[in-house]
Amino acid sequence: MAEEVKKVTITENTESAEIDEEIEETDEYVESPERTEFRRKRVKRIKLILVLLLIIFLIIPNILCGILLYQLNKTNKDMEILREEIKISKEEIERKNREAAAAAQAQQEKEEKEAQYGVENLVQLNLTDEEKYPGKQLVYLTFDDGPSKYTNEILDILEEHDAKATFFVLAKEGFDDEYNRIIDDGHTLAMHSYTHKYSVIYASMENYREDIYSLSDFLTEKTGVKPKFYRFPGGSSNTISKIGIQDMLHFLGEEGIVHFDWNVSSEDAVPRMLEASTIVKNVVNGIGDKKESVVLMHDSAAKRSTVEALPIIIETLQMKGNVVFLPITDGTEQVYHVREKVSEKESETKETANEKTPVIQSNEIESEEMESDVTKAVEEAVSEAFSEEVAEALSEAEKLKEDAKSVETDNIESSDNEEDN
Q: Among the listed ranges 234-238, 264-268, 413-417, which one has the minimum average pLDDT value?
């Protein structure tokens, strides 16, 4: 019986498979319209989902990246502004610290002077040079660009003639003794430039401030004395600076630094070496009858003739009997080509003074023809203005020049390799 049931089942399965195969081969099986519509909608939904996924994975990340880049750029700008504010704050803090240090130093100096001289005697110390030396011609010999190999010789000459001077120096290693001797001998150590490179110093206010700070720190470290007087490279009337002169003067005022130009020039800044006699004539004639003369000279390895002229200049002027050679101090009346404008009234006063007093620029290079005319005019003025004793002194300068020619020849060759500004 079981075998018969098994045979019937196998027979039915075989027939069913044959029927399915026949339907498939003849393609007589057809889906209902409802099922077809359902499958179409399902395919459409799948496509829509795929499109949405494509949008999500491609477009949205790009949008997010754009937003992030915008935020990053904004953050960078905010950081730049913050850094600038921090920088300004640091500069302000440093400025206030320097002001506090300067005030503390001034107070200490005042207390030391009070202890040394007494309060009553300080009145005499606070007098101006004109009040200290009434009826005298005040001469301030100033030397730019030092120290050099001639600095000690210049100091020896000043010491021998009991004359004081002011040295507007650069930052140079290997001259520690010279820096300190200038102060120890009673002269004034003042600032000129840390690098003396016009293209760097005057390129921006940041460079200008850095040059002065660097030089001030350098000299303070070398001598223990903080300098307070300054001379612009090229003078305050120079035409080289890319910075507004009023910006620089305002900065100096904030730092308590007083700038000095000159109203008498030795003209030794020209590229070629002038003869000692010419320098003597330039200085002596330039001083004339001025009550106050700030004389521009140079302490440089290429200025040997300036050293030779120095004792003759001092001796010639001392013959007049009413000349004193002083260092620039707090009691010295400021000599300037340009000063800081504080008010319209002061500005008008300055302009009027400039019209009456010609401005001399240390960086001006005259032509040979102009030098010749000036020399002739100076010679005539000197011969008319001074006595036979002065003429003899000038004659000695000519002899000194002849004796020094051989030395000059050797010095010129070695000096050509050293900086001469």
A: 413-417
- What is the average pLDDT value for the chain, to the nearest integer? 79
Q: What is the CA radius of gyration of the chain?
A: 44
Question: For the chain, what percent of residues have pLDDT higher than 90?
Answer: 49
Q: How far is Cα 74 from Cα 71, in angstroms, rounded to an integer?
A: 5
Task: Give SS3 for 167.
Answer: strand
Distance between CA atoms of residues 403 and 393, nearest Å:
15
Q: What is the DSSP letter of 271?
A: S
- Backbone phi, then psi, for 111, in 5-degree steps? -65, -40
Q: Which two tokens stand for residue 279?
A: 């320098």
Rounded Cα gap, residues 215 and 169, in angstroms: 9
Strands 292-298 and 137-146: parallel
pTM of the model: 0.59
* Distance separating alpha carbons of residues 268 and 148, to the nearest angstrom: 15
Distance CA 242, CA 203 (A): 6
Task: For the chain, give the percent of residues with pLDDT over 70.
Answer: 71
Residue 208 near residue 248, CB atoms below 8 Å = yes
Extract the tokens encoding 359: 């401005």
- Which contiguous run of DSSP H or E holds residue 190? strand 188-193
Structure tokens at 184: 């120890």
User: Torsion angle, CA of 334/338/343/347, rounded to 10 degrees?
Assistant: 110
Please tell me the distance from the alpha carbon of residue 55 to that of residue 371, in angstroms, as a whole number: 85
Is 372's pLDDT higher than 70?
A: no
Cis peptide before 147 (omega within 30 of 0): yes
Which amino acid does the sequence have at 153? E
**Among candidate residues 118, 366, 214, the one with its CA nearest the CA of residue 378:** 366
CA-based nearest residue to 226, from 234, 235, 217:
217
Q: What single-letter DSSP state applies at residue 357?
A: S
Q: Which domains does the chain have, with CATH numbers?
A: 136-331+348-364+374-415 (3.20.20.370)
Say how far apart CA 114 and CA 121 lie, in whole Å: 8
Residue 28 makes CB contacts below 8 A (sequence gap 6+) with: none
Cβ–Cβ under 8 Å, residues 281 and 394 = yes
168, amino acid identity:
F
pLDDT top residue among 78 and 314: 314
**DSSP secondary structure, 114-133, as one string:** HHHH-TTTHHHHTS-HHHHS
User: Is the distance from CB of 163 to CB of 325 less than 8 angstroms?
Assistant: yes
